[in-house]
Amino acid sequence: MASIDTTILPFEEKSLYMPPLDEIQDVVAAGLTSNFETVKVEVVDCPNLTEDPFHLAGQGLNGSPTLIELGGPPYLLPHVDYTKLYDLVSISQKALNSTKKEFLAIGAGAGPYPYVDSNCEGMYNLKVAANGHVLSESHLAQITPDRKRVLLKKIPNTETRCALLGNIFVCEGRPGKVLKVSCKKRTGPQDFIAAIRTTLEQHYGERTVGMGGVFLLKNGKAKQHVMSPFSETALNTEDELNEWLNFFDMSAKLIAVGTLVTNECDLDLRLQHFHSFSRHGEGGHYHIDTTPDVVEYEGYFNVGERIVRVDKPANTHKMGRD
């Protein structure tokens, strides 16, 4: 099945509030101390994220940093809409207003189900050169028929589709200053991303701040889910949804990519969404670490200039956004 023609998709765009990284550093450092025993937040030159342990397709997180949200859970729940297939290359180019820029696109979404003939999770991680050449380090995770194991697969350069929903951070992949966040030993109830997001929300209020990037679960385990094959019956409640999902404790090192935003700014946004992959065959939708006493995180993030909302569902709901 072909992806939807990008030229006919509805695009909405809003500018985001962009505090200086030095200011965000202080805000996040102060806020995270209520959730982690050890916190260090710095503004640093972005390391080469193509290298171990991050394995991104592009080096940096700078150059026209933009958040993109595709579709949404209403295209999955209560019934799946099989027509919702989005080409990340053409959508990213339209969001950046250029077909000639090199760019990096990383983030979380439903995987390209036609490629494996099954519903799956997508960990998107691809670089597109100015001449259109695609380098994909993307992965997908799907459940085995017995629902006991996860299969993590590399997505080839020729497959650039995201199904149903996605939250993607797009930039030109340039080096530059970024926010580095390091935390150890979780003492509060929030996951790593929620702790950052709610700290920013409490400080900036109605001013919408968005960020994207990558974090590493360096030590410990995390609760993650992988979707089952598409349900033949309607999923109408959170209980039915959770019965359909498959939850696992997955072990470090996990490399998670995605976005966060402090409020919906009238665009029906998903506030946070990160998916992880690994070098040891595990991956899925990140929820929270399950080993708070030993957990260790290291993340690199940049602040988005804009958010681009693509194909917003006309009829929406709040299920399936955790």
Q: What labels describe this entry?
A:
mainly beta; 60s Ribosomal Protein L30, Chain: A; ten-stranded mixed β-sheet; zinc ion binding; C11orf54_DUF1907; hydrolase activity, acting on ester bonds
List the helices and strands and how they pair.
Layout: E1 11-15, H1 21-32, E2 36-45, E3 66-71, E4 85-87, H2 88-95, E5 103-110, H3 113-116, E6 121-128, E7 134-136, E8 139-143, E9 150-154, E10 161-171, E11 177-186, H4 192-204, E12 210-219, E13 221-226, H5 238-244, E14 246-251, E15 254-261, E16 272-277, E17 284-289, E18 296-303, E19 306-310
Parallel strand pairs: 3-19
Antiparallel strand pairs: 1-19, 2-11, 3-10, 4-10, 5-6, 5-10, 6-7, 6-8, 8-9, 11-18, 12-15, 12-18, 13-14, 13-17, 15-16, 16-17
Helix pairs in contact: 1-4
Detailed description of the structure:
- It is found in: Nucleus.
- It holds the Pfam family DUF1907.
- This is DUF1907 domain-containing protein.
- The protein is mainly beta.
- It has 5 helices and 19 strands.
- Helix 1 packs across helix 4.
- The protein is globular, with a radius of gyration of 18 Å.
- The two termini are 29 Å apart.
